[in-house]
Specification:
heterodimer; A: mainly alpha; two-stranded antiparallel ribbon; 17 helices; 2 strands; B: alpha+beta; Alpha-Beta Plaits; five-stranded antiparallel beta sheet; 5 helices
Amino acid sequence: MQEPVVADTKTSNRELLDFVFAWPAWFFAVGGALNGLLVAAFVVVILMLMFGLQFLGYSHPVYWGFLIVNFVFWIGVSHAGIMVSAILRLTQAEWRRPVTRAAEVLTIFSLLTAVQFPLIHSGRPWRTMYWTFPYDWNRGAWPNPRSPLVWDPSAIFTYLTSTILFVYVALLPDLALARDRAPNPVSRAIYGVLAMGFRGTTRQWRIQTVAGLLLSAIILPIFVSVHSIVSWDFAVTSVPGWHNTIFAPYFVIGAVHSGVSAVVTVMIVMRYAFGLKRFITRDHIDSLARLLIVVATVWLFFFLLDFFFGLYGTEPAEVDTWQRRLVEPPWVVIAITFIICAYIIPVPMWMFRAVRRNFFWMFVTTILVNVGMWLERYMVVVPALERKSGLTFTYGDYAPSLSEFILVAASFALVILGFLTFSKLLPIMPAADIKEGQILADRIRVGRANVPAAMRE
Amino acid sequence: MAMQSQAKRELLALYEEPDQAADAVERLHGAGFEDNDIEILSSTPYPEGAFGEGHTKHRLFAFPFAGAACGMAVGIAWIVGAQVSLPIITGGKPVVAVPAIIQILYEGTLLGAVLFTVLGVLFESRLPDGVGLYDDRISEGYIGISVMARERRLPDAQIALEEASPIDLLSKEGSLMHAPGTT
């Protein structure tokens, strides 16, 4: 368990920077396909802005469809990235080293993708400034800070800014490495400016270590607040099925479940696409799978609490919403699919060491989790709005449109493209961190066993 | 002339092994150079004291607290100011309601803490830094020992660095070492 990476500095440098300085043909093919999806989504958004939300199939009372589902889903994925990174840094887990950067970068691009959807959904993205930032002194147009629609942007802005700065601070040594290894003067100059003259003095390394711990400690409460506030977009309304005190922790743990799964998926893809087999090992996937078993079970507990509390009050509207979610078609099919994908298939499989250490099965099960978690968000959002209430004369007639499916596909394209572009331009693995692990790695003899160990200050 | 002898110059020696670098630092200390005159450059963090250097003093821990205080102050000014400037009267509720604004204050406080911490990282790391001697071989795993010495002490520094068997010794003008087989 936890075998250290064994490679000399030159080999590590070469392998970790290989993708940054190379131009494989598949990069252009994949990038082109992803850009094609983005162009399709751009056309959909323009048409929606011209013809209104009904172009996507929204009408009274269901105005929150795939756009808000996507928003919640990507905010969720963004969470585990930073959570995994921050917790592993704070606990100084040795196996964190190859994991942290990918997790943090996934956070940035998930978050950037997530914020697109409320902007698009507003129908008039250029006006959202009026509703969120108090700046229009001349017209006296101020936002309403009692609304979670103002809390949301403040939380997301804080989280995005913090994550970008967190990644940048941790990137400084690797930017210096890229500067030193750059194949041409132009890229050397660019990396040089970004590295700000980092030379790797003992002082700079000491500050790096302390900064990693400090920023991790500050970012963790931000991470908790962001998805709590996203949950309050729902929970502070009086809509039955949403108005629930347990929504904040339920959303946070759901975000961790889908996010950690996404980190595993991304790491497995990176292992093969970027040639990082030496650095991403079965131990890493195994460790994350163990974490996932706990997270998934806690998430299931909160889901069941939400369900039981909904029924226990015997509020007709609440019971009606749950009946719609779990019994009536087509929701019953979605409910069964989501629970099977998010828990019933993956968690029992992860109990087996052979599965946890198998890249193929971990890839499949973590994809399944995110299919399930996307459907869970869909099940939270739409049935509650579809319910027939006092003055509702049209209800239950929402069906996703092709345009919405295009936007979902484009959201995945945007995250993948962002991640791929980052990996192309900057080291996706923290080279200095990995090399530090090699320096501190040792083997000790316990009885007749020779086991890996790591020194720690 | 007197000014020239007061000016400090930098030497940078490259070592293959941490033990050699630690030996160089010890010899520099023995020659009377202080920790402030010596920089140890590496492509990866080594445990503090690995090269016999002293404890790095810094005040990075103060930055997040200062940032949090500033962030909270800005948050209060922003959100309370916005509500007081254009009061939205909602039946029976105060214009400035703490439960409604606490989220903004929370985010403002943490954002301030992060921003100041990052500024603190740059300040305490002495970045941007484009002054000191550097060699690309450091990123290949070699350890650089840089020393700032006055002109008259430069020979002492050079001797101390050379005694620890560097693979190269550099000054601003270039390498000071002779290639094997040359004079």
